Structures are given as C-alpha cells and as structure tokens.
Amino acid sequence: MTHSLVCPETVSRVSSVLNRDTRQFGKKHLFDQNEETCWNSDQGPSQWVILEFPQRIRVSQLQIQFQGGFSSRRGHLEGSQGSEALSKIVDFYPEDNNSLQTFPVPAAEVDQLKVTLEDATDFFGRVVIYHLRVLGERV
After folding, report:
1. Which residues is 72 bridged to in the sheet?
2. Where does the source fall among the domains of life (predicted)?
3. 10-residue block means of pLDDT along the chain (139 residues)?
4. pTM attached to this predicted model
5. Sign of the Cα pseudo-torsion (93, 97, 134, 130, in order)
6. Range of the domain at 65
C-alpha cells in the first residue's frame, strides 16, 4: 500500500532558507502538514531538498505544493542506496500554481533522495513549498 514515507527519523537538508530564518521558513515546514507554514528558499539558480530515510524505501510518487509565483519549471529526482553516488530517477515539470501536484516515479529502491528544482518562476530564483511528500512503501 502506498503511503507517505517521510517520518520523524528521516533526516532532511535544504539548499537555503530565506534570510536564514529557519524558525519561520525552515525545512521542518515541508513535512508538518500545516497549511499556514512553508519552506521558503533564498535566491539562487537552483534549490534542493535531500532526504535520508532510516530504511530502504520503494518510491512511487512525489507530491509538491508550491506557492504560485514561487515554483519551479523543471525538477529532477535522484536517489541512492548506502554510500552509492546519487543517480537520476526521473525528470518532472511542475506547473506554476498553488495546487498539490503529483509526479509519478518509476519504481526505485533507495534510502536517500534528492529533489532538485531549477528554472524558478520567481525572478530571484526563490522557491516556496508548503508540502513535500514522498509516497511509496518501505522495503
């Protein structure tokens, strides 16, 4: 059965946080299921989120909810097992809106994922994400 794979033991890292204000815009807001909070990146040519899972997972979908005007036109998902180098799993192309967007992922068994977001719709390259979900199953 497919369910959200991000758990309290999942370690996350992000490329940047707006004004380094982790209290208001930090990575924890990607996963808190709160409609009022978000991760807000600082400016840059690309932004990324790395997730290290406590056990191997089989990914089937990636869900992202951006703030319209602060989304990405192009993204890619990479993954690895153990100490292997990251390898590309899939490219995806988000729309610039406020909807929760679902991207299918070819079956991949990993314990680390990297979501890279490029070509931001914001002039300064900032990205705002309210929800980031990795769906699939534990292996």
Report:
1. 120
2. Eukaryota
3. 87 96 94 95 96 96 97 97 96 97 95 97 96 96
4. 0.94
5. positive
6. 11-138
93: Cβ contacts below 8 Å, ≥ 6 apart: 73, 74, 75
User: In 3D, which of 47, 57, 5, 6 has the Cα closest to residue 25?
Assistant: 47
pLDDT in tens, 2-31: 789 999 999 999 999 999 999 999 999 999
The strand pair at 128-138 and 46-66 is best described as: antiparallel
**What confidence tens digit (pLDDT) does each residue in 54-64 have?**
999 999 999 99
* Torsion, Cα of 50, 53, 54, 58 (10° steps): -160
Query: Which among 79, 74, 72, 82 is positioned nearest to 121, based on CA atoms?
Result: 72
Residue at 3 is within a domain: no
How many domains would you assign to the chain?
A: 1
* Amino acid present at 8: P
